[in-house]
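Here's what a typical entry looks like (arginine--tRNA ligase):
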Amino acid sequence: MLASITLLVPPASPSPFLSFSRFSPSISASVSDLVRVTSRRLAWASKTESIATMATEEDECMGSVKAQLAKLFEVSLKVTVPNEPDVEPLIAACTGKFGDYQCNNAMGLWSKIKGKGTQFRGPPAVGEAIKNNLPTSEMIESCSVAGPGFVNVVLSKSWMAKSIQKMLSEGIDTWAPMPPVKKAVVDFSSPNIAKEMHVGHLRSTIIGDTLARMLEFSKVEVLRRNHVGDWGTQFGMLIEFLFEKFPNFEDATETAIGDLQAFYKSSKQRFDADPAFKERAQQAVVRLQGGEDKYRRAWAQICEISRTEFHKVYKRLGVHLEEKGESFYNPYIPGVIEALTNQGLVEESQGARVIFIEGSNIPLIVVKSDGGFNYASTDMAALWYRLNEEKAEWIIYVTDVGQQQHFDMVFKAAKRAGWLPHSDSSYLKASHVGFGLVLGEDGKRFRTRNTEVVRLVDLLDEAKSRSKAALIERGKGEEWTEDEIESTAEAVGYGAVKYADLKNNRLTNYTFNFDQMLNDKGNTAVYLLYAHARICSIIRRSGKDVEELKNKGTLVLGHKDERDLGLHLLQFPEVVEEACTNLLPNVLCDYLYNLSEIFSKFYSNPECKVVGSDMETSRLLLCEATAVVMRKCFNLLGITPIYKI
Ligand SMILES: NC(=[NH2+])NCCC[C@H](N)C(=O)O
């Protein structure tokens, strides 16, 4: 199948994820000239695009507040320490009260330059110089040096207000990050045909969808891959059992078979108990892999029945996936293994053919001792395909942490083969997004009462019916149409399941608890969805046309609570960037929760009265900006917003 294998050459030293957003700047002309020169050097220059195109793109793509400040500090660092050209600005949001952002380069720089005949007398002096050499910019109101040389920046209120208003009139997409990657594969969900789709697959589906959404928002082309387990020796047994149960196997529809998992169990029992059946099942695998028509059709039918079941879950979750199952890569395996063998990477070990991996005491088995292929052979072929045929630059795998070692070995083998660069600091790269277990109230693996596996469709239906019951209890049955009740119950119920999963650091285990996740207080989707609906109702109550205000009105961040809210809104681009770069959806959840807390503080302050005050227009704009950013967060988390409660 593979005529030749082209090996990918890793790109030459790509730069960090720095100029990340199209969030537009208002830096003065001279500074922006300087900035353009430096950021051009910083731009990810491993592709063959001309510098000219990159420069025009950059004119509009100046990045998040953090990235914009980084550019200004880069200019200053160049002047401050001309002999240290490779110093990268270290910019962080301040936690203390001395400023909004700080530049943390002074101490590190001092240890580099001391004793080299520098004119500086310690880190505070370096900080002072960094501050003094900072180009003037409309962004910055004031700067000060604190402690051992931290340079604190206070942003200008009018610049902040203008930036938020610009987002309101041009749309939240202007705040999208711009990672230096064009195409990514997100391999997620990926259940196994005829086996249970368990809560682990639910986590993978929810986390993978969010990561895909964040990348899509960032204008990355995402291949949403469902790497279903549709190949392997279990199919021999399933097909034989199908023939036995349904002599006319084409009649074996979903309704006729009923539960495919039960079907799997019975066929396994038959396989274990009857040697003649076992023999036939083994033959069936050979005939299926040999491409015999009847066997292929039976296999396709079993896959189709499973698929129908998976789709019920995807439909409820609103998740879109494109299936390329294990079987798809099967024809590519021999060619890939041959190429790896020709490179001298594949060795014989106890009858199997393996790739040894540095630092691992077990090798990666790519051909089993019986000559068959396995999970790892498929993953090597899939990775090869994704890099060479699909030309993806970032390949992301979302599975439970139990598979970490497997992926670690696959990635290391790919690095040995020269498919991927050794360092993960650049794109091209592969990343494993591991996650912990879902636990039940008893602290053990989540199961239903009779210790059977949990049917995901039932789980989601229960979330919906519980949230529907809560709406009815609150009297919405009389107030709302049936459709409104249904769609709100879905938004809240499914949103609650997703958010309860996403808000935790994905590596930790979490306890599944309906009462907790459907609580309207605390860090839950219900609380956040209601907070958003309340903001919408404030705007409605004002009777003003907010679209009109966006262009005619002026936003002012006069009060401290208004400024705090404005600052948090402006941090959205860098938070998405962080969540996306580190593949951590909980970072976005934390941001969203804090946003609603900061909004409450503003809204409940009598000094910040919105409707009917003389600052009404400005405050309505701030409410609208909050609602817009909240909706984008919901959208990235795969949660449907609600507009009234
Ligand atoms: N390329 C991959 N191996 N993707 C993940 C597949 C997950 C596997 N089917 C499972 O259920 O555990």
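The two ends are 58 Å apart (CA to CA).

More examples are in the samples folder.
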